[in-house]
């Protein structure tokens, strides 16, 4: 016997159309399995309604609100550490890829030879920059060049320090926003 639409209609909380209701009643008269399903389902709904909603334990809300800032802080710390781990893992993967590519292209070369080649290439790049940039720099007074280098270096150093401080603060200290949340709860 096919029970497909009847089982769904029996278990559904939606109101059936008169035609569907008549079809279900006709099927229930002929099918003991669906009759048993309907009886058990109605008994289960009755037990659920009798049980009602359980009230939380005394002080649950206060404990939950008290622990919320700590949980948020833990989640933020875990997120920051995961972010740093991903950055380090990507950097390590890039380094491994570079080493792997180098080994594929230079299977017989030693590390010392490769370092010498790398240094030589860096010197060639610097020489190329020197031949392009230095003639233009000769027309600028040396004081301006040194001031520009000093400002650029100081800016880079300050931005690096701010970046490192922000990462340290986010990973190892509670953000200030959590302290504001705690103050707001105290004022309530």
List the defining traits of the structure above.
elongated; single chain; mainly alpha; 2 domains; 7 helices; 188 residues
Largest sheet: none
Structural class, from helix and strand content?
mainly alpha
What is the straight-line distance between the termini?
64 Å
Which percent band covers the strand fraction?
under 5%
Mean pLDDT: 80
What is the count of helical runs? 7
Q: How many strands appear in the DSSP assignment? A: 0
Count of the separate structural domains? 2
> Over the alpha carbons, how many angstroms does the gyration radius reach?
36 Å
Low-confidence residue ranges: none
Q: In which range does the helix fraction lie?
A: over 70%
Helix and strand run:
HHHHHHH
Describe the fold and architecture.
There is one protein chain. By secondary structure, the chain is an all-alpha fold. It folds into 2 domains: 4-51, no CATH class; 60-105 and 140-187. It is built from 7 helices and no strands. The chain has helices at residues 4-11, 18-30, 32-51, 60-105, 111-137, 142-172, 176-187. Helix 1 runs parallel beside helix 3, helix 2 crosses helix 3 (32-51) and helix 4 (60-105) runs antiparallel to helix 7. The mean pLDDT is 80.
Furnish the topology, listing elements before pairings.
Blueprint: H1 4-11, H2 18-30, H3 32-51, H4 60-105, H5 111-137, H6 142-172, H7 176-187
Helix pairs in contact: 1-3, 2-3, 4-6, 4-7
How would you summarize what this structure contains?
The protein is built from 7 helices and no strands. The chain has 188 residues and is an all-alpha fold. It folds into 2 domains: 4-51, no CATH class; 60-105 and 140-187.
């Amino acid at each position: 016997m096919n029970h497909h639409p009847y089982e769904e209609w029996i278990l559904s909380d939606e109101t059936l159309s008169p035609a569907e209701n008549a079809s279900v009643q006709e099927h229930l008269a002929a099918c003991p399995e669906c009759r048993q399903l309907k009886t058990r389902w109605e008994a289960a709904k009755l037990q659920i309604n009798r049980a009602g909603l359980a009230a939380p334990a005394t002080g649950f809300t206060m404990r939950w609100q008290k622990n919320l800032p700590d949980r948020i802080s833990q989640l933020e710390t875990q997120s920051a550490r995961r972010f740093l781990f991903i950055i380090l893992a990507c950097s390590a993967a890039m380094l491994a890829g570079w080493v792997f590519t180098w080994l594929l292209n230079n299977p017989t070369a030693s590390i010392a030879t490769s370092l010498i080649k790398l240094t030589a290439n860096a010197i060639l790049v610097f020489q190329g920059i020197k031949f392009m940039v230095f003639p233009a720099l000769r027309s600028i007074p040396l004081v301006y060049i040194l001031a520009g280098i000093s400002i650029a270096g100081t800016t880079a150093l300050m931005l690096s320090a701010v970046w490192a401080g922000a990462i340290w603060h986010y990973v190892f200290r509670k953000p200030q926003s959590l302290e504001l949340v705690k103050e707001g709860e105290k004022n309530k």
